[in-house]
Amino acid sequence: MFGLLDQLKRVKSPIKIGIVGIGSIGRGMVLQSALTPGIECCAIADINLNRAIEVAKQFNYNYKVVNSLAEMNEAIQKGQLAVCEDGNLIASCEQIRVFIEATSSIVGGALYGEKALDHNQHLIMMNYEADLMYGSYLLSKARKNNLVYTVSDGDQPAVIKRIIDEVEFMGFKIVMAGNMKGFLDRHVTPYSIKGEAEKRDLDPKMCSSYSDGTKLCVEMAVMANGIGGYVATPGMYGPKMDSIYEIFDHFDFKKIWNGENPIVDYVLDAKPKGGVFVIGYTDHPYQKSTLSWLPPDMGPGPFYLFYRPYHLCHFEFAATVAEVVLNNRAVLKPDFGFKTNVYAYAKKDLKKGERLDGFGGYASYGLIENCADNMLKAALPACLADDVVLKRDITKDSKIYLDDIVYDANSDGFALFSKSFQAQSGN
User: Fold this and answer.
1) CB 366 within 8 A of CB 345
2) Could you tell me whether strands 386-390 and 355-357 are parallel, antiparallel, or unpaired per DSSP bridges?
3) Residue 150 domain-assigned (yes or no)
4) Residue 137 lies in a domain
5) What's the average model confidence in pLDDT over 104-125?
6) CB 344 within 8 A of CB 234
7) Is there a cis peptide before residue 272, judged by omega within 30 degrees of 0?
8) pLDDT confidence bin for 199, thresholds 50/70/90
9) DSSP helix, strand, coil percent of the chain (3-state; round to 5)
10) CB neighbours of 282 closer than 8 A, spacing ≥ 6?
11) What is the arrangement of strands in the sheet containing 276-281, beginning at the earlier edge strand?
């Protein structure tokens, strides 16, 4: 990181970035780009234009509201922050070097990303659902255009990947890439979580996706698809424990690890809250001997715990911008295609003719599973379980299959998914 800072301080002109989606993370990235040398946020967009304007005012930007690409180019040339409602303007602006997708729109995020790549912009995803479903296609497109595609530092998958890189550098095999979750209720709804959402200034539906575990499963599927990982059981084990140091009491790594590929999983309610971890393996006698008198909480061997007690969301994203532009390097991308995906399960008894309401809604939650286990009968990805109608009744906690729904295979969501599935073999 310190090397990146030195590089950024030496750039002749700041790296111009554009951010689409000015929620809590997008807002923070606008500020962080002003605090990090060598990076300039020159355009922001949100479907709620007033929200984008408020951010520009809050952080004392000299801004201009623009409605066309010509107006955007003029504002950027004058050193103003271009503020708009349409993310396509940013994706089409060739003055912008890095496009950051931070919306909550799964299909819309992919379409913005596609356009940005067509206009010679590197693409950083803060939209993990879009990355899971369409990352293979976008990565393939980026490579054809000699551009970089990656998810962003700050959220758990990229933070875990940084630990993995370090642990592998030291010669350990990666056994598990792990997340740390504080609360889980598969059947929570936007209504039942509304009070907690309001306390945190979050959209209730998005908050529901956090609480029902779907978001967690998406993040760990992104992780698995970037490192060639798998889940040892559908939905992951997620044992509850008081401290991360208890992990060896809850996982039998000799039994569940295949000896080659990393497992992705999580622990529930463990301290420190908000952390991430990696389990590494070494059976070298000298390494084991040395580790036996180093911090004992790393584990009894040959499996060892490496953890980080925090991830800092927007505070860390600028490192990704620097890596992408200065070193032509992605932090984490779906190099292994669809090793895993997140599939829809009924939150309640569902009736024939009922319309599913998507991510974090009232009808379904998502569980991560190995794709190979779903090849004989295609399951419905949780990220596509929106605005589709059931052909038959589905009982609570049952998996929903593509054969169970009426859907348009030519719609943007399903068509892009097909492209992404086809593209994975080239990654």
Assistant:
1) yes
2) antiparallel
3) no
4) no
5) 97
6) no
7) yes
8) confident
9) 40, 20, 35
10) 171, 172, 173, 288, 291, 301, 302, 304
11) 263-268, 173-181, 276-281, 303-308
Quote the pLDDT of residue 196.
Answer: 83
Q: What is the CATH number of the domain that holds 379?
A: 3.90.1210.10
Query: Is 114 among the domain residues?
Result: yes
How high is the mean pLDDT of the chain? 95
Number of domains in the chain: 3
| Location of structure tokens 């979050």 | 202
**Percent of all residues in the chain with a pLDDT value above 90, rounded to a whole number:** 89
* Sheet containing 405-406: order of strands: 355-357, 386-390, 405-406
pLDDT for res 294: 84
Would you say residue 119 lies in a domain? yes
Q: What is the pLDDT of residue 247?
A: 97
Q: 349 and 302 in one domain?
A: no
Q: What is the pLDDT of residues 9-66, one digit of tens each?
A: 999 999 999 999 999 899 999 999 999 999 999 999 999 999 999 999 999 999 999 9
Domain range for residue 353? Answer: 340-426
CA angle 230, 233, 237 (to 5 degrees): 105
Supply the pTM of this predicted model.
0.96
Domain co-membership, 68 together with 122: yes
Shared domain check, 378 and 266:
no
The pLDDT of 268-286, averaged and rounded, is 94
Q: Write out the two tokens for 178.
A: 């792990």
Question: Which band of pLDDT confidence, cut at 50, 70 and 90, is reported for residue 376?
Answer: low
Give the pLDDT of residue 1.
Answer: 55
- Domain stops at, among 311, 329, 358: 311
Q: Cβ distance 345 to 399 under 8 Å?
A: yes
Q: Three-state SS for 170?
A: coil
Q: Exposed (0-12), middle (13-18) or buried (19+): which is 290, by Cβ within 10 Å?
A: exposed
Which is it for the CA torsion 138, 385, 211, 87, positive or negative?
Answer: positive
Q: Give the number of other Cβ atoms within 10 Å of residue 238's Cβ.
A: 18
pLDDT single digits (tens) 143-159: 999 999 999 999 999 99
Spell 259-283 as b/e; 16+ CB within 10 A means b: eebbbbbbbbbbeeebbbbbbbbbe
Residue 92, judged by CB atoms within 10 A of its CB (0-12, 13-18, 19+), counts as middle
Q: Which of 177-206 are b and which e, b meaning 16 or more Cβ less than 10 Å from the residue's Cβ?
A: bbbbbeebebebbbeebeebbeeeebebbb
Which CATH number does the domain housing residue 46 bear?
A: 3.40.50.720
